[in-house]
Amino acid sequence: MRSPRRRGPRRSRRGALSLVVALAMVASAFSIPYLLHVDGYVSPANIGYARFIPGSSPAAQVNQTVNVTDNGYEPSALNVSLNTTLSLHLVNVGTVTHTFTVDATPNQVIPANITPAKLLALFAPANASLVNLTLAPGQAGYWNHTFRTLTDPAGDSYEFLSLASGGYQFKAGLFGFLTVGAGVVGPHQVVFLNATGSITFVPSILIAAPGLPIVFEVGIQGALSHTFTLDSIPNDTGLSNSFSNAQLLAYFVSNPPLVDDPLTPNAPPVVTAPITMPASHGIYEYVCTVPGHFPGMQGRVYVGVTPQPPNAVPVVGQVVQVGLFVVAAVVLAGAGFLVLMGMSESSTSRRKRGSPPPDGPGTSPPVSP
Questions:
Q1: What's the pLDDT tens digit per position in 182-204?
Q2: Cα dist from 160 to 1, 12, 75, 108, 178, whole Å
Q3: Which overall architecture, per CATH, does domain 44-55+186-313 show?
């Protein structure tokens, strides 16, 4: 009969391999949370910080060059202070004739879906425009104007556009906006946010310093209309997420908001006058009152107050972070099992090498007579 094979060396190699794999698993377990690190804090896109403005006074004159292209005006947003002379140098750098026409009616936004015929009819009266300058390709022109009054204390906006090609150039994107501000503004802070087509405010958390008036500059993205409505009561617990639209509107009738401005697609950003908050320290909520947009469209202004979790820590980030450590713990547990198995294999191998060989033909000890 064949002698049984001795398994000591193979068990030893198996135990050593188990220990090596276990060490590798331990190293990977400690690396997982760092190699796959996920921050638990809210992304910068969801937090807006106020920008300090030291204050300004109007200049005597502002000189600006505007290039008129076949696709639009560059720049398409102009700004000037009240009682400041705006001097525009207009250059047609396109291949066809364009016009530079400024709507004489402040804060009027021409509908994007207006027909070319109605557009031309709108500007047919002589007093419908502040200027109507025609520029052939390569031609330059000038326009000087001083705005002496405001219809809105927060500032006025004038739309400019091209009426060439029978009004179709406006439909092709040749339009822009000229904003006229109050001019003399004391020290204040500005916060920026957007109302989006996904029915959200971005950012939804604004952080401002106490003691300074706040200017809100609210843009609009997408084709939906919104409102920017700012609650006047700090730390308000009466504004409930369960409100119907009728209850929300009734709430603001009883508690007049600090700001209640409409936001229209294709319009320039709404810029509020500097607002002194009722309390220097507190949390103020802003919402959209368009039916169906609340409670999705809401945000908070933290004035002299630090946002606290859960506002500053998204649940998704927490779940991912916890999940990574759970994976690391499972890997460590598996490594521990392999270590024990390797130690057991090594111990068994040592015992096998130190014991007499098993019984069999030619292996029995001699028998005494």
A1: 777 778 899 999 999 889 999 99
A2: 107, 86, 12, 11, 7
A3: Sandwich (2.60)
